[in-house]
Amino acid sequence: IYLALLFISSGVVAQEEVKKDTTRVTLKNIEIILIDHSNDVSDEIDTIDAAPNEIEKNKYEAHWAGIDMGFSMMTNGQFKTSFDNNPYWKNDPARSMTWNLNVLEHKFGIAHEYFGITTGLGFSFTQVAFRDNYVLNSTPDTLFASIDTVVDYSKNKLKAAYLTVPLLLEFCTNKNSDKSFYFAAGVVAGVRIASKIKREGEIDGKEFEQKNKGVYGLNSFKLDGMVRLGYGSWGAFASYSLLPLFDVAKTVEVYPLTFGLSLNF
């Protein structure tokens, strides 16, 4: 009897039948309640409503967010790469690369998923690689380049970064974006946020590297006409600058033409 009373008073285990479908178990300072739902009318005890709300219904997959990689060539406004009086603007397309990091997208559906207007936000990183050891010179009134006969440059590029916003008409063939062909066309506006010259080379047998920040006659804004097409997450794009790359008061009109591939998130 003494042992039984000691066991009960210690409160190690106590079980109480509260009602027919509920059991309460007490372990010292911890209380556990077990509920039997076998007699419940509904078979679903705890469910999550998976039906899309109104916002989700109006949200359609776009083909903007992702990464673009392309190569650029400078043209004279007539889709020609020749600059008779300014040969330094005939760049090296193989080294003149453009990277676009498109981080936000939204598609306004006009005909459900099949047709709509796509916009978003992104960053564009462009570089113009010069040929023949041309060195870019910038003054308040002019922008030109001259050949450096002393230094042999392994890298000689003008780099610029832009914040971009697209406005594209997009067509899709399937509700499922992963199984859809798509085509988009429109414009991409941008504002320049940084620019610099980067040079690497060798002088007197010693390697060197230069990084000089500056405007270098670049326009503060850009506006590109763009076409994008592809299937699922993979695609291709082409863009042509509708605004000159540089201030036309300082040099001739230069319009970049870019081709590349895209990977959509």
SSE ordering: HEEEHEEEEEEEEEEE
Which class best fits the helix and strand makeup? mainly beta
Largest sheet: 8 strands, antiparallel, barrel
Tell me, rounded to a whole number, the average pLDDT: 85
Low-confidence stretches: 12-19, 43-49, 51-58
Number of helical regions: 2
Number of strands: 14
State the shape.
Answer: elongated
Proportion of helical residues: under 10%
What is the straight-line distance between the termini? 73 Å
Radius of gyration based on Cα positions: 32 Å
Q: Quick gist of this model?
A:
This protein has 265 residues and is mainly beta. The protein has two helices and 14 strands; from the N terminus they run αβββαβββββββββββ. It has an eight-stranded antiparallel beta barrel. Strands 1-2-3 form a three-stranded antiparallel β-sheet, with no helix packed on it. A two-stranded antiparallel ribbon has the order 7-8.
Describe this structure in words.
There is one protein chain. The protein is mainly beta. The protein is 5% helix and 56% strand. Strands 4-5-6-9-10-12-13-14 form an eight-stranded antiparallel β-barrel. Strands 1-2-3 form a three-stranded antiparallel β-sheet, with no helix packed on it. β1 and β2 form a beta hairpin. It is elongated and about 95 Å long. 23% of the residues are buried.
How do the strands and helices of this protein lay out in sequence?
Blueprint: H1 2-10, E1 14-19, E2 22-27, E3 30-35, H2 54-57, E4 66-75, E5 97-111, E6 115-129, E7 134-138, E8 143-147, E9 152-172, E10 181-203, E11 206-213, E12 221-231, E13 234-241, E14 255-264
Antiparallel strand pairs: 1-2, 2-3, 4-5, 4-14, 5-6, 6-9, 7-8, 9-10, 10-11, 10-12, 12-13, 13-14
